[in-house]
DNA sequence: GATGCCGGGTA
DNA sequence: TACCCGGCATC
């Protein structure tokens, strides 16, 4: 019987990273001591089998699982009061475990992982084993089993983003990830999850999306999510596809959240705080199409079959559709070398730098185009070449999209210059002759003459590059 | 010299 | 930010 106590203490040591476990252990010791006889022995109704629990990390693991399965049928029934009582009340009673405080946040989220294990174990054994035990033993076993299960479920892999590719949309793992695998809340609040213990399918609460949302996105979502979730079904929504821009990846997902996770997990590696905010630069929203909500999959199908699609509506609708593609807030060059997007593929990244670049009214377009058009002028050999098309029209009243617009946009240039060769771009550019030769295109001066200078475009009047008749 | 427009100054 | 102009390059 002393072995039992000792083993429980060992358990406390082995599972020390898990504060919930250790704290609960602390809560248990008095119970054992209370149950001990005059000689200090502990009454262990279950017998030697009970000693197995603390040694869950040892060689007799199959047996342990079996025993755990025995107890889980009881634990699951009384899980809530067990957790609520011991965890919160006894944590402070173990000061030496305060160093493990960092793990404490795991306690609540990890409890959500438990039921998955419970279901697996329960089906094999049944509840008969706990029927003949005394209530004290049952309670004890419940606590122990809960802790062991928790410890088994709370490996750092669970805490950190999964190291494996979530796989094609539709895998259950991606659905689990979507429910918070990589971004468990530090708040420890269990409100994000509402496990229906009687239901086989986990049903994340509506706040799950808030967990996954990036900080800036979450600002909008906090306000809109509630009504959006209610109104999501009847309304038609925009369905967007996000494509990974990482070199030789090209993975396509249907939600920005899933894509962010994909990038963070696969490409950015560890889920550091910095990397968690850089996923935006590596994916693009490649298409948006109106989708009737009735054709969208059911919520459960969304959770299981379509990775991250449960957030599709807010991910795509939080921003204005189509016209306002996702734009990284403040592009930060990464020292980590990575090739930019394909040169010819239109992408939000390519439109990011001058977001409304192409919509600037022609009368002031030179102010936006000026610095851009110079490096790509035909007469500048060192610059990235692109041949501007011939002027589409000389109509000064409809200068919507200027022919100098090109497939490779400024944003992509920016990306290439800041990522591929952040330093080497400047010399060639600096030596570029920004002043191009006179083209054949008539300028306002030629067309209208000096005597009709008032009809010149503003740029010509200001001796700027003519934007009415660009080369 | 005429033209185009960059870079900088000013209000 | 809008406006203006000196000055340079090109034709």
From TrEMBL:
Q: Which residues form the C2H2-type domain?
A: 242-272
Question: Which residues lie in Low complexity bias regions?
Answer: 184-196, 333-352
The entry lists its GO molecular-function terms as: DNA-binding transcription factor activity; RNA polymerase II cis-regulatory region sequence-specific DNA binding; zinc ion binding
Q: What are the alphabetically sorted keywords of the record?
A: DNA-binding, Metal-binding, Nucleus, Transcription, Transcription regulation, Zinc, Zinc-finger
Gene Ontology biological process terms in this record: regulation of transcription by RNA polymerase II
Record localization: Nucleus
Does the UniProt entry include the keyword Zinc? yes
Region annotation Disordered: where it falls in the sequence: 159-196, 322-354
Q: Does the keyword DNA damage apply?
A: no
- Name under which the protein is recorded: Putative zinc finger protein 395
